[in-house]
Each structure stands twice: as C-alpha cells, then as structure tokens.
Amino acid sequence: MERGYHAAGRGTLHGSLDFFTHSFRGAGTHIDFHAHPNLEVVYYAQGAGTTQIGDASFDYYPGSFAVILPNMKHNEYRLEDTEVLFFSFSGDLGIGEFAHGLYADRNRRLEALLRAMSEELAGKRRHYDIALHGLLYQAVAEVARSTGTAEKTGRSEKVKYAVNYMNQYLAENIDLQAIAQNLGYSYDHFRHFFKRETGYSPTQFLLRRRVDKAKRLLVDTDRPMTDIASECGFGSAPQFSMLFARLTGTAPRDFRKLSRIR
C-alpha cells in the first residue's frame, strides 16, 4: 500500500509541500544512490536497515528519521520490512538551517504529524490541502526541534571536512563552489558559516594556507620560486609573488633573505 501526493502549485506564505508518501518496503530491497532538489525527511516508523547520506552511513530503526539536504546523494537498504513516511518541501519556513543525518523522534510527535498527513491524503476531505500545509509547518518545526542540538555540530564537521580537503589538495586547483555543493549548500551559505567559524572566507583561508606553506619552503629549502609556487597551488611564479606580497607585505625573495639574516 502506498499513498502519494505531488504538489499542484499551491504554497503557504513561505514554503510548500512538494512530495509526500506513506509506503511499506520489503526486507532485502534497496534504493540505489539518488538525489532530489529539495530537503527531504524520511521517517522509519517500523523496520531496520541502513542508509548512507553523503559520506556518512547510518543504521535506521523504528522511530528514527533521516534529514537529507537538497541534491545530496543517499541510498537505503532494508534488512527488515520497513514502514516509511517520507516528505520533501521547498521554500523558507522560517526555521533556519538543518544538518543532514539520522535522528531520533523520542516522543513520536513527528510520527503522529506524518500519520495525520497520510490520513488527510487518504480522506481528501474539503480543504485537505490547507490542512496538509498546516501539518507541514508543524512537522518541519518538530524536525528542527529534534535536530537543533546537532545543527552547530553538523556545520562544524562540514568546516573540518573543507579544511582537511584544502590541506590535502593544497597544490591542486581547488573548486570551492564544488566543495560547498558536495556538502549540500550554496556557496554563499557555505561561505557565511565557514567565515563565522574560522574568521576567514574560504578563499581567504585557502590563500593563507598556501602562503603559510610557501613560507616554510622559503625558509627551509633553496628551491626555486617556480617550484614553490607550483607545490603551494599558485598558478604561476608571478601570481605567487603578487599574492604573497599582498598578504605578508614582503616579496618571497625578500622574505627568504630576511629569514636567513635572523
């Protein structure tokens, strides 16, 4: 049995329900990696299995739910027969950010709201679409309450991932917008919370990391400027010299000479 709903263009003041389904999925079945353009919430009312969201894997259980950010790849493997209530929504409902992952619906309030949505779909009484959107607001608020304590942690982990990636691939052409997209954010959103946690925008942070590495090579080795520029991820020796001087106030050759005089 499966009940489904596709939005017909009607929205609330700030957001809309895009999709809802209540389904039963058999043990041993699975869904391969896929992604959707809007934020998704997958509620596991019964059953057990695994789901991978981005790079993280989770074991779901009755009363748990997954939050999946827009365009984030995820899959699902069912070890037991599983009852799923799933919805996605778009727009700004005034809640703020969400962190992807698996969470517990400890008091089963979210489940009650989702079952009420399923009943509205089944009955289709007069003004059921208005009732659905009212329940959507309550459901999203409940998701925010359940995940709020993990929100800052989730962002911090994403910043750590970005920093580690920059450090690991410092010599390569790093696409910061692609990093943001892989983490499930627009670049502007990613830049905002990255700067809030590090004090620098991603571009500024990356440049400082490259210059810091260049300083060590200038002091500890006699390698030519072209080699240092390449190893630190600069496009050319002139670009390296210009950006190094802009950040430190000293040209690379002068920095090397001064460090050795001391």
TrEMBL record:
Keywords: DNA-binding, Transcription, Transcription regulation. PROSITE patterns: HTH_ARAC_FAMILY_1, HTH_ARAC_FAMILY_2. InterPro entries: AraC-bd, Homeodomain-like_sf, HTH-like, HTH_AraC, HTH_AraC-typ_CS, RmlC-like_jellyroll. It comes from Cohnella cellulosilytica. CDD domains: cupin_RmlC-like. The keyword NADP does not apply. SUPFAM superfamilies: Homeodomain-like, Regulatory protein AraC. Pfam families: AraC_binding, HTH_18. This is Helix-turn-helix domain-containing protein. Residues 160-258 form the HTH araC/xylS-type domain.
